[in-house]
Design a protein that fits this description.
It contains 13 helices and 3 strands. The protein has 332 residues and is mostly helical. It has a 3-stranded mixed beta sheet. Helix 2 packs antiparallel against helix 3 and helix 3 packs antiparallel against helix 5. The longest helix is centred in the middle third of the chain and has 34 residues. The radius of gyration is 24 Å and the shape is globular.
């Protein structure tokens, strides 16, 4: 009799424990607060961000078309630039459409799976961008510091391999940590004071302590950012030294023009992501976090086409050809 009672009590405890475990992860969706404010402010932000999104898609698509259609641009530098533009299109597309919907929505919700899908693609595409900037710096280093060996080293085959490695490493770099974050228990609250699903707000909402996962996530991000920026700065330091030794002023000006545009993009992107993921951000306000994220995720991608084409004669000519071709194809 006592044995039966013990068995019953043990089974009751087991069933209660199972119920508690099943009830831990009760969050099925998150609320992204975004940019709270009056309805007029929401409409104004919607219009501005939509315009930026359209400009980003148009500018980067124009660069891809220019490189595709102009045979003079079938060189490693422009092939890398076209791939970079393709990356930028997807980088903004994983965040801006949902941001636009939330600006007009009253609920501002995103599903659990949708939130972590956005989190994964946002971090993976951002990591891929870091490696693309490294490869583009390597390409400029070879072209300026070793011009005679450049055609034999930076072949089309090597260019394809480097592009594929950027995508592969970028999408594998954060996969494990994001998976472990998604397995944390989320039992409420479910309000994220941000316009996208980012690492710090998600870990904060977890019901269980996740100091190890948080530390690993920040360590991986910091390692990728620091190593890639050091490589880029080292490459351009060698480029600068080689450029200063060029005897003709025209040659120096062309090299500075090409590398200058790359360095502007690197400065904009790395300046903001280092402020967000490398330097201590606990003292920064939530509004500052949103502004910093907005700069590197929305503003930088729309500026890149203008930066790369503004001082590049070949690209400007190819873009004019694309625009003229579109006018010809238009029905009269």
């Amino acid at each position: 009799m006592c044995q039966q009672q013990n068995d019953l009590s043990l089974s009751s405890l087991h069933s209660l424990e199972t119920m508690n475990k099943s009830e831990i992860s009760t969050v099925t969706q998150f609320v992204l607060l975004g940019f709270p404010g009056p309805w007029k402010i929401q409409i104004m932000l919607f219009s501005m961000i939509l315009l930026v999104y359209i400009l980003t898609l148009t500018g980067n698509t124009a660069i891809i078309c220019a490189v595709r259609w102009d045979h003079r641009l079938h060189t490693p530098m422009y092939v890398l630039l076209a791939n970079f533009s393709f990356l930028e299109i997807w980088y903004v597309t994983c965040t801006i459409p949902n941001m636009l919907v939330n600006l007009l929505s009253k609920t501002k919700t995103i599903s659990f799976s949708g939130c972590f899908a956005q989190f994964y693609f946002f971090f993976s595409l951002g990591t891929t961008e870091c490696f693309f900037l490294c490869v583009m710096a390597y390409d400029r280093y070879l072209a300026i510091c070793h011009p005679l060996h450049y055609p034999s080293i930076m072949t089309g085959h090597l260019c394809v391999i480097l592009v594929l490695l950027c995508w592969l490493i970028g999408f594998l770099g954060h996969g494990i940590t994001i998976f472990f974050i998604s397995q944390l228990p989320f039992c409420g609250p479910n309000i994220i004071d941000h316009f996208l699903c980012d690492v710090d707000p998600l870990i904060t909402l977890s019901c269980a302590p996740a100091h190890i996962i948080e530390h690993v996530s920040h360590s991986v991000s910091s390692l990728i950012i620091i190593l890639t920026i050091l490589y880029i700065l080292g490459s351009y330091a060698l480029v600068l030294r080689a450029v200063l030794q060029v005897p003709s002023s025209a040659g120096r000006q062309k090299a500075f023009s090409t590398c200058g545009s790359h360095l502007v993009v690197v400065s904009l992107f790395y300046g903001t992501i280092m402020a967000m993921y490398v330097s201590p951000t606990s003292g920064n306000s939530v509004a500052m976090h949103k502004v910093i994220t907005l700069i590197y995720s929305v503003v930088t991608p729309v500026l890149n086409p203008f930066i790369y084409s503004l001082r590049n004669r070949d690209m400007k000519f190819a873009l004019r050809q694309v625009i003229c071709g579109m006018k010809i194809l238009k029905p009269s």
